[in-house]
Amino acid sequence: GYRTGPPLPASSPSSSSISDRNTSNRSSLGSVGEPTRPPSSNVYYSWFEVNYLALIRDFYTREANEYIDRHTVGEYLEKADSRMRQEKRRVETYMDRTQTMSKVQEVLDYVWIGRHYKTLIQQENSGCKAMFAQARVSELRLMYSLFSRIPEALTDIATVKQECISAAIADLVADETTVNAPVRFVEKLLALRERFERVVSQAFGGSLEFSNQMKVAFEKSLNNDPKCAH
C-alpha cells in the first residue's frame, strides 16, 4: 500500500546513471528517505528537483489511477487533499520552498485533479450531482478547493449545479398537487432556492460568480416553463 509517499532522491547523484537511480527509487516506494545534507544550488536544480518532480509524477499517477477505481469521489478528494498537504510539508522541510512548491503543486494538481476531474464530477451516486442533490456541503467545499486551480473544472461544476437547479424546478412543477396550489408552490420554490443558496454560500465561499449563476439558472428555468412564465 501507499502510506508515506515516494522517497526523496539522494542529495547528489552518484557515479551511477540517473536512470539507474530512478529505477532504484521507484522500486522502494513507500519509505521516506531524508537527504544527508542540503543539496547545493547547482545540484538541486540540475538533478535533485528534476528527479523529484519526475518521481512524484510517476508515484501519484499510479496511486490516483488505483484510488479512483476503488473509492467514492468524496474519499478520493480526501486522499488527494491529504497527499497535497503531505508534499507541502515535505517541501517546506527539505527543499527550496520558494522555487519548488509551485512546481510540485502543478504536478499534483494535474495528476490528482486535471486528469480525472470530469470523472469525479460525473461519477454516478458520489459525484457532483449527488453532492448537490444531497447537499453534501463538506465534499463540495473540498471539491471546490481542489478544483480551484483548474478553471475548466470549475466551469463543469457550475454546469452541473445549473442542471441540478433545472431538474429540481422541473420536479416541483411536475407535482400537480403543488403547482395547482400557488401558495404551497411558492413556499416550496423559496425553500428550494434557500437550499441552493446555502450550498453556494457554505461550499463555494459565497463566490459571487457561482451565486450569480444560480440566480440565472433559477430565472431561466422558471421562465422556460409555461406553467411558471408570466
Automatic annotation (TrEMBL):
InterPro entries attached to this UniProt entry: Cullin, Cullin_N, Cullin_repeat-like_dom_sf
One protein family per Pfam: Cullin
Pathway: Protein modification; protein ubiquitination
UniProt-listed SUPFAM superfamilies: Cullin repeat-like
UniProt keywords, alphabetically: Isopeptide bond, Ubl conjugation, Ubl conjugation pathway
GO terms of molecular function: ubiquitin protein ligase binding
Domain Cullin N-terminal: 32-226
GO process terms (BP): ubiquitin-dependent protein catabolic process
Pro residues biased stretches: 1-10
Family per similarity comment: Belongs to the cullin family.
Protein name as it appears in the record: Cullin-5
